[in-house]
């Protein structure tokens, strides 16, 4: 189940595809490119993966993983081209996603009405800065003989630091939230195999007893007391199913407005409400 959830919800992001194919492709480009870049960069930075040439043949490289020698390849082979340009491929993939995201935010009226600079525009700008400066490094040493490489490297470093510093405070934190959400499928399966919770108002089965009990514990730890007294004793709001909560809210509003019993006539011709007092 965990492998299936990883493939469908984390890698393929099928929940976005059901909403919009355009958004699905956009998110796949952004998440896939960023994930690939992190998967390449972190092992290289921490020394988990590195490459060495042979002492007697500088045209062949050998990959080392955690200090153990693995496959070797010629520097002019297709394997070398792919291995040494994976970051460029990820940057191109991210650029496609950024372009689609920018077009969507400019043309979609709903997005324009609700988007905020710090939450929606800034992460795109940070990702673009990292992507652009990374590609500029490749252009510098491949086509410009290293011209301006030091300045571009510093700009790339600063953009990466800015991106990493922003991750906990915006949408980019989804990469960790989505990974943690994989455990939800296991939690739901564990709840389905156990006892069920029934609504104290209508008696319908609406959740697992384990889930309801855990919610009560968490709410108490957060300082929220949802217990209330009834003629039958003390009850907890989590023991009420969501449909009945909506019904209770409507009944509470009816009582607060002091309307007549809920009939077709009273819905369209309510009694005058008394003057409001503090």
Describe the protein's architecture and organization.
With 278 residues, this protein is α+β, with helices and mostly antiparallel strands. The protein has 13 helices and seven strands. The chain has two domains: 2-180, no CATH class; 195-268, no CATH class. A three-stranded antiparallel sheet has the order 1-2-3. A two-stranded antiparallel sheet has the order 4-5. A hairpin with a 2-residue loop joins strand 2 and strand 3 (68-74). Residues 263-278 have low confidence and may be disordered.
For this entry, give a set of tags.
disordered C terminus; 13 helices; 278 residues; 3-stranded antiparallel sheet; two-stranded antiparallel sheet; elongated; 2 domains; alpha+beta
Write the SSE topology:
Elements: H1 2-11, H2 14-17, H3 21-45, E1 49-54, E2 57-65, E3 68-74, H4 78-84, H5 86-107, H6 109-114, H7 117-143, H8 149-166, H9 174-180, H10 182-192, E4 196-198, E5 205-208, H11 209-222, E6 227-230, E7 233-236, H12 242-257, H13 264-268
Antiparallel strand pairs: 1-2, 2-3, 4-5, 6-7
Share of helix among residues? Answer: 55-70%
Count of individual helical segments? 13
Tell me the radius of gyration.
Answer: 28 Å
Give the tally of structural domains.
Answer: 2
Q: In what range is the share of β-strand residues?
A: 5-15%
How would you summarize what this structure contains?
By secondary structure, this protein is α+β, with helices and mostly antiparallel strands. It has 13 helices and seven strands.
């Amino acid at each position: 189940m965990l492998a299936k959830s990883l493939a469908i919800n984390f890698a393929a992001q099928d929940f976005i595809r059901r909403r919009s194919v355009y958004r699905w492709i956009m998110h796949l480009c952004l998440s896939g490119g960023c994930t690939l870049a992190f998967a390449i960069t972190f092992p290289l930075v921490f020394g988990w993966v590195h490459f060495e040439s042979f002492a007697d043949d500088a045209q062949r490289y050998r990959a080392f993983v955690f200090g153990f020698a693995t496959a070797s390849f010629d520097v002019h082979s297709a394997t070398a081209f792919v291995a040494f340009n994976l970051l460029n491929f990820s940057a191109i993939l991210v650029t496609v996603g950024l372009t689609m995201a920018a077009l969507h935010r400019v043309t979609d009226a709903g997005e324009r009405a609700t988007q905020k600079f710090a939450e929606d525009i800034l992460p795109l700008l940070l990702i673009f800065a990292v992507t652009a400066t990374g590609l500029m490094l490749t252009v510098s040493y491949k086509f410009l003989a290293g011209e301006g490489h030091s300045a571009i490297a510093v700009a790339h470093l600063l953009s990466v630091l800015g991106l990493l510093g922003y991750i906990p405070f915006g949408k980019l934190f989804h990469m960790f939230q989505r990974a943690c959400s994989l455990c939800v499928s296991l939690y739901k399966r564990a709840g389905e195999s156990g006892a069920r919770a029934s609504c104290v108002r209508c008696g319908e089965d609406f959740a697992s007893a384990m889930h309801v009990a855990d919610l009560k514990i968490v709410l108490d730890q957060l300082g929220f007391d949802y217990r209330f007294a009834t003629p039958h004793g003390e009850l907890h709001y989590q023991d009420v199913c969501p449909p009945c909560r909506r019904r209770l809210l409507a009944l509470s509003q009816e009582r607060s407005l002091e309307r007549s019993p809920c009939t077709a006539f009273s819905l369209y011709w309510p009694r005058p409400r008394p003057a409001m007092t503090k």
